[in-house]
Design goal:
Chain A: It is a multi-pass membrane protein. The complex is a heterodimer of chains A (about 325) and B (about 325). Chain A is mainly alpha-helical and about 325 residues long. Chain A has 14 helices and no strands. The longest helix of chain A has about 40 residues. In chain B, about 35% of the residues lie in helices and about 25% in strands. In chain B, the strands form two sheets. In chain B, strands 6-7-8-3-9-10-12-11 form an eight-stranded mixed sheet, with helices on both faces. A four-stranded antiparallel sheet of chain B has the order 2-1-4-5. The chains are: A mainly alpha (about 325), B alpha/beta (about 325).
Chain lengths: ~325, ~325
Amino acid sequence: MNSYLLKRVMVLFPVLIGMTIIVFSIIHAIPGDPAETILGQKATEQSKQALREQLGLDKPWLQQYFNYMGDLVQGDLGTSIRTKTPIAKEIMPYLAATLELTAASMLFATFVGVNAGILSAWRQNSWFDYTAMIIALIGVSMPIFWLGLMEQMLFALKLHWLPSIGRMDQRNPVESITNLYVIDTILAGDWRQLWTVIKHLILPSIALGTIPMAIIARMTRSSMLEVMNSDYIRTAKAKGLSQFLVVYKHALKNALIPVLTVVGLQTGALLGGAVLTETIFAWPGVGRYIFEAISSRDYPVIQTGILIIAFIFVFINLLVDLLYAVIDPRINYK
Amino acid sequence: MIQPILKIENLHTHFFTDRGEVPAVDGVDLYINPGEVLGVVGESGCGKSVTSLSILKLVPDPPGEIVGGRILLKGRDLVPLKEKEMRKIRGDSVSMIFQEPMTSLNPLFTVGQQIIETVRLHRGLSKKEAREHAVEMLRKVGIPRPEAIIDEYPHQLSGGMRQRVMIAMSISCSPELLIADEPTTALDVTIQAQILDLIRRLNEEQGTAVMLITHDLGVVAEMCHRVAVMYAGKVVEEGSVRDIFKNPLHPYTRGLIESVPRMDETRERLYSIPGNVPILSKEMQGCRFAPRCLDVMDICRQSLPKLTLQEEQHSCRCWLHESQQEDAV
């Protein structure tokens, strides 16, 4: 198990290096000049050239790449051209915001999706099954920015049940320790603010979680249907177990592996930041952070941001692979 | 007269498919006395497995449904029972072992977890007691090092060991009736003998009645006290092992016995009953075996004979013998 883990971690490096090469090439292929974006169109050629030299942008690409990698290896994630702040420090609150939203969205998506999938399979071809699968189909095909806007119109503007934008009540904010506001409010013991934070999370996580929820529901259903026909389910019934135990204990555990794969992939995708959802809900997440960096040609931020997201994505996949072995004893990593 | 532990009367289990209603079990009558081993034999698709699943009401519904008849377990009819009542019977007073030991155990739970679950459910034992009981059961079915095997997963065991585990699980609540649906079909011949030996020992030592479903007449001769021969959803002949083998009455039974390869004979080809099992439908008329029967008469194609008693505890469903009996009367 440990040697397997080591092997998997070693494989991470070539993946991430490949990632840096691709991102670096793409960024430099984008038309536009950071010096001009920063100084404005009226800046003189001299001042632009001076800035390029200062940022190292006058050097050949290959040299720029190796300089960047050299810094990276030493743990220097670079400095934002725009704000002159170290990216490692700057990106943390954004990452935390995305992490919190992703966690809430996936919690919603997994809980609702898995249960809907199970019930659909359990009561196959019933009205519940048909309704759930139609909703799932609508879920995967709906543009999420539209869903977000509709949610805001109904629950914020019309019914005034939930806040439409932001992460918490800014009038009396709690101290940011982790930047995960749910945890920060708990640490501060501010239960009212905790409730506000949760209320702020509801609409964006439903908007963001709808597609994963629909995918998870459909995957759970098909996986459960396959498992429910297996011999060991008949054995479980023949032992006199209740339907609930047969379905939720004996069948679900066996049906979980493909579902887990989907949950992992979707979590990774959401962690990459959802620019549209974040924009609609004024959610200060990593998606918007990188989007702004792209608009202002802030090369180091784009590179580092994408690298971090890629790292998280690969890490989650590794985690899912390890979880397989926890669920299924037949999977043995040696 | 002893009360049978299980008495099936005129059982009808039909499947409702796109091609119409299929009477997989079409008026089956059977009984098993306490401590008895009843063999149910027949070709694939004759309804023997569906009959066994019907007893525990485990026929997949839809498409299957028990549409008529009674299943009396010690005099109590199971057919009208609610699911909740049935669950108390399954795995407790009636338990079942299946054909495929490779797939019949849940791969994600240890052997112990699967046995303990059953014992705790029906006997309400504590975790520790249930575990001890499970070890005891594993030892009883001849598993070496039961204390260690109990924590293993099914994939770590061989086919024969898994079937032993299945048997340990099914006898863990001391059932009065054990239904074994082709328990040795998927196993090697040497392992088959061991498993059959185990089932017979349980029958002799614990007095557990066994309903042994098989298509292997050798197994029947070896194991059973009584035999019911099924064809196309009906019992066509029923009697003691001795009667069935020495004096088979139904042409189908005779054909089956003829088909068994024998050591003392040198034949170029094995005997086989010509034709195929009919596709079951509600519109069938006459004796189901008529199209394949060598002794077929006109009446066979027109109306269905009854299962009638020919001699003591030996009954047969055939016009050949129906007429004889009428003559006798």
